[in-house]
Amino acid sequence: MDLKELIKPENLVYKKTELLNDDSMHYCPGCSHGVVHKILAELIAEMGIQEKTVGVAPVGCAVFAYKYIDIDWQEAAHGRAPAVATGLIRLMPDNFIFTYQGDGDLASIGAAEILHACNRGENILVIFINNGTYGMTGGQMAPTTLNGMVTSTTPNGRNIDLNGYPLKITELIAQLPGTSYVTRQTVHTPGAVRKCKRSLKKAIEYVLDKKGTSFVEVVSTCNSGWKMTPVAANNWMEENMVPYYPLGDLKDSKKGEIVSEN
């Protein structure tokens, strides 16, 4: 079979979505960001909403999403992505607006913005990457850092008496009346990627149907910040992060106020 035969559409098994730019991913090996970028870009393309989509990315590793997905983007100050997204969706109510945020950004300096945006029920999607650390700036403790977890600012492990409890921000979000769909997923296995993609699609559909805020947490790894290999980081996440941040839907407005798949 010659090359022309091989590249016929009927022989195509898989191709990169056209919404992903040709820039090489700069993320650390094993980082979850690239996988989430891929499935998000696939969904925007498959749903035919590229021309009406605007992403908002703040400070942190999350900001680099604009380098890879070919849509309109707006950068925001640290933690302020929901406030910027609020302005965008109110100016352009028929567009699809989403934020892409890390845990240091969303759950710490941006805690007020995310809670009030969700409580108002802004028609936006929030994608929340939770790796339990400030990945870009040196692996410091974040609000979501687990008890006993070693970071650059907690070399002896997080101490609840000193640092307080790890913040389950997604559980708080699920209680707010303005949210329509709240879920927690991972992307560390092929099966988890497929499930996360289905959840992201549902979240986008709810936003397009103007049901209020959709919130998708992705429990993730930061093998550089955690000082682990990618494989060890995935195992550590499964053994430690997932039990504290259990996976599944926390709220689905089509099924009732609060649900659980755990």
Q: Helix content range of the residues, please?
A: 25-40%
Shape descriptor: globular
Domains counted in the coordinates: how many?
1
- Briefly note the CATH topology name: Rossmann fold
Q: Could you give a short account of the major beta sheet?
A: 7 strands, mixed
Q: How large a portion of the residues is in β-strands, by DSSP E? A: 15-25%
Class per helix and strand makeup: alpha/beta
Count all strands and give the number.
9
Task: Please explain how this structure is put together.
It is built from ten helices and nine strands. The chain is an alpha/beta fold and 262 residues long. The chain has a single domain, classed as Thiamin diphosphate (ThDP)-binding fold, Pyr/PP domains (Rossmann fold). The strands form two sheets. The chain has a seven-stranded mixed β-sheet with strand order 2-1-3-4-8-7-9, sandwiched between helices. A two-stranded antiparallel sheet has the order 5-6. β7, α8 and β8 form a beta-alpha-beta unit. α2 packs across α8.
Secondary structure topology:
Elements (H helix, E strand, L loop, with lengths): L2 H4 L26 H14 L6 E5 L14 E4 L5 H11 L4 E7 H7 L1 H10 L4 E6 L2 E2 L5 E2 L18 H4 L5 H6 L4 E8 L3 H19 L4 E7 L3 H4 L3 H15 L3 E5 L10
Parallel strand pairs: 1-2, 1-3, 3-4, 4-8, 7-8
Antiparallel strand pairs: 5-6, 7-9
Helix pairs in contact: 2-8, 4-5
